[in-house]
Design brief:
With 262 residues, this protein is an alpha/beta fold. It has 2 domains: 201 residues, Rossmann fold; 37 residues. Helices cover 45% and strands 14% of the residues. The chain is built from 9 helices and 7 strands, in the order βαβαβαβαβααβαααβ. A 7-stranded parallel sheet has the order 3-2-1-4-5-6-7, sandwiched between helices. It is an enzyme of class 1 (oxidoreductase).
């Protein structure tokens, strides 16, 4: 399917690996110019080179640094002529017991997983509306729909973003101007983040990470973990010209793991 977004400009956060890289790669294959961000310069530059190789006509500009910092956000926003597509993404806070988390831990989680996406949205959606096209995809977590007990920091911060988006996405000056804002809720995807969670569960249960992984996969109807490439393909469709009638939605990609009807 031709997605109708060739030549657009996208800002993809946490794009050097994992789900962010999968989204950036899918957009690159569609001819979308990219501004990619991640903390580590060397890894980001290597990813940028890989993305350029996916399509001969695109530009890929990299901005390294912590996107929760205002100066890094401003540099990322200024790296392209405009931002037509925004993919908000950030590594989640560490797992643990809420009794061990300080106020600073909570503030950091909210800063990274709620306030930073909101700042990027605020900086881009009015320009999108003025041009008559915009796509915002927030990568959150399946834990927003079905909380995971050891991921309380993520559960709380990402749920705050979800509530904010529910109101913003439906405002007529955005939805009526072909600007959509949706959330993608990944379940268990084969990423560094998943491996960290498996390692933590293994330490807590005195089992191996491999045993924990096999146990988790048996609980997923698809019988496997997802891949970053298939996640990216879904993200690219949400960013496409064909997805203008979908906004304010929380889209769960989890291989059927969530058992509810709604």
């Amino acid at each position: 399917m031709e997605l109708g977004i060739a030549g657009r400009w996208a800002l993809v956060c946490a794009a050097s690996k994992g789900l962010g890289k999968g989204c950036a790669a899918a957009l690159a294959r569609e001819g979308v110019n990219l501004v990619v961000n991640a903390r580590k310069l060397e890894v980001l530059e290597a990813t940028a080179a890989q993305l350029r190789a996916l399509h001969p006509a695109i530009e890929v500009r990299s901005v390294a640094g912590d996107i929760s910092r205002d100066d890094v956000r401003q540099a990322a926003l200024a790296a392209g002529p405009q931002i037509d597509i925004l993919v908000n993404n950030a590594g989640g806070p560490p797992p643990g017991d809420f009794r061990d988390w300080s106020r600073e831990d909570w503030l950091q989680a909210v800063e990274i997983n709620m306030l930073t996406p909101i700042e990027l949205i605020k900086a881009t959606v009015d320009g999108m509306a003025a041009r008559g096209f915009g796509r915002v995809v927030n990568i959150t977590s399946a834990a927003v729909k079905a909380p995971i007990d050891i991921l309380g920091l993520s559960n709380g911060a990402r749920s705050g973003l979800t509530g904010f988006i529910a109101g913003l996405a439906r405002q007529p000056h955005l939805a009526g101007r072909n600007v959509t804002i949706n959330n993608l809720l990944p379940g268990a995807f084969d990423t560094d983040r998943l491996r960290q969670t498996l390692d933590a569960a293994a330490r807590a249960s005195a089992q191996s990470s491999t045993a924990i992984a096999e146990q988790r996969q048996r609980g997923i109807p698809a019988g496997r973990f997802g891949s970053a490439d298939e996640f990216g393909a879904f993200c690219a469709f949400l960013c496409s010209a064909h997805a203008g009638y979908m906004t304010g939605q929380n889209l769960l990609l989890d291989g059927g793991h969530y058992p509810g009807t709604f």
